[in-house]
TrEMBL record:
Native source organism of the sequence: Aeromicrobium endophyticum
UniProt keyword list: FAD, Flavoprotein, Oxidoreductase
Domain FAD/NAD(P)-binding positions: 5-301
GO biological process, any: programmed cell death
Gene3D superfamilies listed in its UniProt record: 3.30.390.30, FAD/NAD(P)-binding domain (3.50.50.60)
Protein name: NAD(P)/FAD-dependent oxidoreductase
Molecular functions per Gene Ontology: FAD binding; NAD(P)H oxidase H2O2-forming activity
Signal peptide positions (record): none
GO cellular component terms, A-Z: cytoplasm
Keyword Flavoprotein in record: yes
Entry annotated with the keyword Oxidoreductase: yes
Length: 394
């Protein structure tokens, strides 16, 4: 059976929700279809590792985005788009359906990287979706021992969430000090201490190289020769952008698999756009890049929706990103790479502004427990210079 939509969105995440709402800003009537591989409606991913664990009064209903109700979009869930025929303007899905489109948005996001030999199972969760949240909630009801793998966003936020909810947590990550790839030493040590003080067993300096599930739990084999045994493993090793569908249909993809778009979020095909984690776009301050964070998903998704519906706007929003860990929090813009020169400016109440300095300009700003700094940080980055003094910039 074939359905035709004026606007078809491949991907059922936050970008799809924002895009459908963006379409409605410009077109009240055009038909919208959303094809989502996940079996659940678009859901705000930040809640999956933050508020649903840390705020007892916050429910899934509070988080719900209401995509279909608010926009009239038809959701086709549990279906993966397998092919795009750009000449016929149709797509076909893993469930054997075909859909025609007037204009198409590819918002396929990415898939979690996996450890060879350690397949997803009831005891091994490569954490990304609402369904994973449900499984982890059920599996941690009796406070088991959870091995959390990865020292990035998922690893740190989930380890903090689980230990605060009574589980016993071992966090395995490759760095000597947790966060030291991202933060200067003074901040990374504060992060590491927060986790150990909260009761997390932090196992640094090791990658998980393999493992297996057993009837009783999971066994992880580490690069330092040790083994971690736990009741279950939650893993966050980053994502691979899901650009293969675009590449198969002859669209440009970048070396890491992102889909190349211009400042109108449009591919070389004027009727096909891409947005979100999967889109490699020209950021007007930071230059070409992909950004895997929620502010980008929301703003780029909304812009893509408006552009699909006829807006000639340029996407000129430089996204920020943020994280909450216990009582600490931060916001940031640009590239946080601790191998660069960093300039740390202390602020009252323990806050710090950290500037990441490249060859001839500041490339990233971390606002560690410092509020209202995002717009000033963008100004520092937009200046494309190295200031004489960092003291009073923010
Ligand atoms: P990240 O890229 O943030 O972190 C991956 C981590 O895994 C790194 O610490 C990496 O270390 C480590 N790692 C890689 N391989 C191994 C291994 N074999 N054993 C142990 N550790 C390993 O990805 P996440 O999975 O945490 O997040 C997935 C996506 O979700 C990202 O797109 C992220 O931006 C997004 N997200 C964003 C949030 C936010 O903005 N607050 C919150 C949650 C998710 P190394 O760097 O040394 O390779």
């Amino acid at each position: 059976m074939s359905h035709d939509y004026d606007y078809l969105i491949i991907g059922g995440g936050m970008v799809a929700d924002a895009a459908a709402k963006g379409i409605r800003e410009k077109d009240a009537d055009g038909t919208i279809g959303i094809i989502g591989e996940e079996s659940t409606a678009p859901f705000p991913r930040p809640a999956l590792s933050k508020k649903l664990w840390t705020d007892p009064d916050f429910t899934e209903d509070d988080a719900a985005l209401g995509t279909a109700d608010e926009t009239g979009a038809t959701l086709h869930l549990g279906a993966r788009a397998d092919t795009i025929d750009r000449e016929a303007k149709t797509i076909t899905t893993s469930t054997g359906q075909s859909y025609g489109y007037g204009r198409l948005l590819i918002a396929t996001g990415g898939h979690p990287r996996q450890i060879a030999g350690l397949a997803p199972s009831a005891r091994v969760i490569y954490y990304r979706t609402l369904e994973h949240y449900h499984r982890l909630r059920a599996a941690t009801a009796d406070h088991p021992h959870v091995a959390v793998v990865g020292g990035g966003y998922i690893g740190t936020e989930i380890a903090a969430a689980l230990v605060q909810n009574g589980s016993s947590v071992t966090l395995v990550h490759p760095d000597d000090v947790l966060g030291s790839r991202t933060f200067p030493d003074v901040v990374a040590r504060e992060v590491d201490t927060m986790f150990t003080d909260a009761g997390v067993t932090v196992h640094g300096g090791a990658k998980v190289e393999g493992g297996s599930t057993t009837p009783a739990g999971v066994r992880l084999d580490l690069s330092d020769g040790t083994t971690v045994l736990a009741d279950l493993a939650v893993i966050g090793l980053g994502i691979e952008p899901a650009g293969v569908l675009a590449r198969r249909s002859g669209l440009d993809t970048s070396s890491d698999g992102g889909i190349v778009v211009d400042e109108h979020l449009t591919t070389a095909d004027p009727d096909v756009l891409a947005a979100g984690d999967v889109a490699e776009y020209p950021d007007h301050i930071l230059g070409r890049r992909r950004v895997e964070h929620v502010d980008n998903a929301n703003e780029m998704g909304a812009a893509a929706g408006r552009i699909l519906a006829g807006s000639d706007e340029v996407y000129d929003h430089t996204p920020m990103f943020y994280s909450d860990l216990f009582d600490a929090w931060y916001e940031a813009v640009g590239t946080l790479d601790a191998s660069l020169r960093t300039e740390v400016v202390d602020k009252p109440d323990g806050g710090k502004v950290v500037y990441y300095v490249g060859d001839d300009e500041v490339v990233g700003v971390l606002l560690w427990k410092v509020g209202d700094g995002v717009e000033p940080a963008k100004k520092v980055l937009a200046a494309h210079t190295i200031p004489d003094s960092f003291d009073d910039l923010i």
